Amino acid sequence: MSITPFIISVVLFSLALPRVLAQGINAPALLFSDPKFVKDFVGSYGILSDVEPPVSADERVLLAKVQELFSKGQYSAAEQEIVRFIKEAAAPTDKKKQPVEVSASMVYVLGNLYFSSDRQEEARRAFLEAIRRFPRFRRAHTNLGYLYISQNKLTEALPILQRAVELGESSARVYGLLGYCYLNQKNALAAENAYRQAYLLDPKSRDWKLGLTQALMQQERYAEAASMLGTLISENPNDRQLWLQQANALISQDKKIDAAVNLEVLRLKGIATESDLNLLGNLYMEQGEGQLALLAYLDAIQKAEKPDIARSLKSARILSDYGYPDKAAELVDRIAKFKGLSERELIDLDLVRVSIAQNAGEQEKVGALLQNLFARDPGNADLLLELARHHDAMDKSGKDESNRATHVGEAKSYFKLAVEKPAVAYQANLGMGQLLIREKQYVEGLSYLERALGLKTGDKSSLEQYVSRVRRAADRETLRKDREAKARLEQETNDKKNK
After folding, report:
1. What range does the domain containing 384 cover?
2. pTM passes above 0.70
3. Does 298 fall in a domain?
4. How far is Cα 3 from Cα 41, in angstroms, rounded to an integer?
5. Phi, psi (rounded to 5 degrees) for 480
6. Could you report how far apart the first and last alpha carbons of the chain are, in Å?
């Protein structure tokens, strides 16, 4: 007979950049793949008089026989015995006997057999019927809770397991699964308490330590979570997910060098993935270690069976933006050697080359690259923005005074094209507004800045202050123009009278 193992996935705490982009930690298989559970489950055919229904003498005899058959793995024979008994009780072949309803215990035992045979809907109905017949049936509640957990029906499982605890259930497994349900509902404090109770009863269980760690992470108690993960790592030193989760807890405490150490351990063990190495590179960049970052990024490219070009180009941009254009160029050259790059990827690669040239102060090279790109993809939003910024930068530099008007005109034209592209509308409106303010065209510039403010996400306070200052300047400009217009009108009127 095939018995399906039931895997419980521990909920992954939302990680935000630059947090570890790790997959969820999965607890090992529970329920029928756990020998201890099977032993306890077989034992659940016994009777606990205080919270379980009474049985007749005939039922006791049958239950003893069923328990023996189940312990030998003879599930079909056990089921046949129970079904035969239930049918005989409902319609006795001996006409002298009266039909009777079997006890809730017999229905429960049948539910256990269905559950162990992966006949889950039949098991659910049997457990519910057993509870209907005897509402204080503790083990029927417990096993129904296990059934719901195996189906990942955590909303249904929670109240059933709670009721089992109210009826006296005190096993580590039930407390641990309660913790899992609470964790899934983002009730981290209740999850922590349930997992601590499970851990108290079964301190060797990896599952409950993992669950407790996740509950602490949800409460942002990162130091405690990191400590618990340290214990787990000492017990499972080759578990990549544990090292990543601890790195995440360390990053959340701003202990980024310690997090980098975790990732270096994975690198030395040979189990670091492409994403792990890219994260390691990012952490090094934040510490100003450009060479170490480059080596991590290069290792990430080598690690991937199919390189993530977009991710690798992002790493090159990071190197360039942090002031390492030479190392960024080295990474781009490595990426360019990959065969089968699409036209889109080639354009993105050249856009990174533009960024590198800009940070290196090579404006002529920037202009040549941008013109080449524009010929290949004139509607590219990022390209239009970069062209506008290039001409704007050429104007601000003051190095080409003879062509200043040309650069200003080109910058305005490209900014106006870019503002129509949603992907860069915020940056384009902001850039156009700042250009016009620099040209002292406050009223026109204000309209672009106000659109940029409407598009901006996150903290807007500094931009709001800037827009407020520009608005005052625009008001002054409007008043000045009104006065000048009024003065001209008066002058024209006087001139007419004098004639």
Report:
1. 378-499
2. no
3. no
4. 14
5. -65, -45
6. 115
